């Protein structure tokens, strides 16, 4: 049975290649961890050692798998990825030595020293990138669809302008002039703060009462921050807007659709336990719905410029070892996260949420509390 499984073999090969090319034992070990488990759930650190050291049959079967590799085809893949590694020079004896090294006290001690929250986040990020790509390729292969078309469309991310919020506001009917003036003042105050905000500040707060138009204000602020980060820092963050209840998600999603003027899923996406798993985008002037399997995968991976979802979905995508939950984690990294109605989170979780997002500042663009 193990001869058919490739996770552990791929993990050891990943360790060798990363260690050779990057000369970083820790990153190489993390690569071994995520690759060896890419068809299952992330495991306890100790189990990554025991699976190699506890059973001589495992080692023997691994060596047999290694000997049966088509090195020519594997080298084509390695070279095609631009990796400077010659698989033909990697002998069975060296492979066995690497297995022994992976289980050595030296490596274990090095990795244990780094086992903190930052390493936890890095493992989740690497695992998420791998399983998202692996699952997507498997789906396209099973349906005999050319994945190159998807990659071409997916990597040309849509451009969003924060001006769309201003244009939408201009078209709104004014029923109460004093209320409208008050809302516009609050709107401009927030935008002035965003324009002058040092981009190094990661945790922000918009304190506006209900009825002040904070949904549109928050969307405008996030879109303007996105523009500034593209212009000044050279990277393009996604926007994740999370709320406590599905009913509010539906309301906000409908508003965002009107503001953005599109139903394309790669621009705007909603995700909660009741939402449909439908993914569509424009192709050659017409709206194209992707297959059920591809749609489900992309929706659950939050593959969109703006995602509207729940606190539960967000937190369950961080505090988990589950394969299915983690496949969206790479899209959470480097994103602008808006936490609306954050006070509705049960108070027993407040400390956890505060400590989590404080620790995640290094991998998130901005965390915006409403």
UniProtKB/TrEMBL annotation:
Protein origin, superkingdom: Bacteria
Protein name stated in the entry: CRISPR-associated helicase Cas3
Matching InterPro entries: CRISPR-assoc_Cas3_HD_sf (IPR038257), Helicase/UvrB_N (IPR006935), P-loop_NTPase (IPR027417)
Residues annotated as domain Helicase/UvrB N-terminal: 178-357
Gene3D superfamilies to which the protein is assigned, alphabetical: 1.10.3210.30, P-loop containing nucleotide triphosphate hydrolases
Gene Ontology MF terms: ATP binding; DNA binding; hydrolase activity
Organism annotation: Acetivibrio straminisolvens JCM 21531
